[in-house]
Amino acid sequence: MSVRVANIMERTKRLGQEVANIVTDSQDYTTMASGLENYVNQTVSVITSDGRNFIGTLKGFDQTINIILDESHERVFSSSSGVAQVVLGLHIIRGDNVAIVGQIDESIDSRLDLRVRYV
Which among 18, 20, 32, 107 is most buried, taking Cβ atoms within 10 Å? Predict the structure, then answer.
């Protein structure tokens, strides 16, 4: 077998592995998306890959985990000045930025002493 044929076969094998990874990733999105159905119309916290924390009512999402929050705000944590809440209202978060989505227990959240200041 020539070197050129061997190189083509190796590249084809790598391409096949990349396609398999894409299929696996899309299945992960599908699994994640089906898990979010239980949170629709519930108060959730969304933590993004850059560490931002958004709180709001989950109104919708799609297969790539783009998230729509209503009545939302961002909690900005600071060791010197406490927690600032930036009111956002209706807000969309791109799915590729979403790291964690979790339901907020409003009875516990309301008892937290966050020393919140609104911005």
Answer: 32
- Of residues 74 and 111, the one with the higher pLDDT is 74
Whole-prediction pTM:
0.69
User: Domains along the chain?
Assistant: 3-118 (2.30.30.100)
Task: Estimate the share of the chain in helix, then strand, then coil, as percent rounded to the nearest 5.
Answer: 40, 40, 20
CA distance 92 to 90: 7
Neighbours of 54 (CB within 10 A): 21
Contact 68/90 with Cβ under 8 angstroms? yes
Alpha carbon 87 to chain centroid, angstroms: 19
What is the distance of C-alpha 48 from the center of its chain? 6
